[in-house]
Specification:
The chain has 6 helices and 7 strands; from the N terminus they run E-H-H-H-E-E-H-E-H-E-H-E-E. It is of the alpha+beta class. It has a single domain, classed as Gcn5-related N-acetyltransferase (GNAT) (Aminopeptidase, 3-Layer(aba) Sandwich). Strands 1-2-3-4-5-7-6 form a 7-stranded mixed β-sheet. It is globular, with a radius of gyration of 15 Å.
């Protein structure tokens, strides 16, 4: 499996230029319509937010970010059933040639291993367009399940995919 060599490396300010290039790639831009907002987030993550570069061996292949979500934000999105302090994650693979090699699956599994260490986190969630079937398959391989559809802030109809960590801290 090509994903055996995947690791999460600390995101550094020097990675902003690389992230900008990745956000402009057609296979990424389709799902990340506001590259400037994503770059602003990456340059100055909010409290409770973290990020990493996905590496395959020595190559930087993608970007992963995550943050804890408070009750007010969840309620504003109509996600009343999601516990506060859950983690929302976003992931992208920078080059189309790296899609389908399970790098994203391995990166999400690495993130899940890290987040499981905090018993206060009940769920990890991912939001993705209902049209992004490739992402759905990858997220399912990483243990996530579609729990519902909703329309977050101008992104159109999306799936909420969740990995429930309650009672499963191994």
């Amino acid at each position: 499996m090509m994903s055996d060599c995947v690791s999460l490396r600390p995101f550094r300010p020097a990675h902003l230029d690389l992230l900008a290039v990745w956000l402009a790639q057609p296979h990424v831009a389709r799902w990340y319509p506001d590259p400037e907002a994503n770059l602003i987030w990456a340059a100055n993550p909010p409290v409770g937010g973290s990020q990493a570069i996905i590496a395959a061996g020595a190559a930087d292949v993608g970007y992963l970010r995550w943050q804890r979500v408070d009750r007010k934000t969840l309620d504003a999105l109509g996600l009343h059933e999601i516990p506060a302090n859950s983690v929302d994650a976003d992931i992208l693979l920078g080059n189309a040639t790296n899609v389908g090699k399970e790098y994203g699956v391995a990166a999400l599994q690495a993130l899940t291993t890290e987040i499981r260490r905090d018993a206060a986190v009940a769920l990890i969630g991912l939001t993705t367009s209902i049209a992004n079937v490739r992402a759905h398959r990858a997220f399912e391989k990483a243990g996530f399940r579609i729990t519902r559809q909703y329309e977050p802030n101008g992104l159109g109809l999306c799936h909420l995919m969740v990995l429930d960590l309650r009672g499963n801290r191994s």
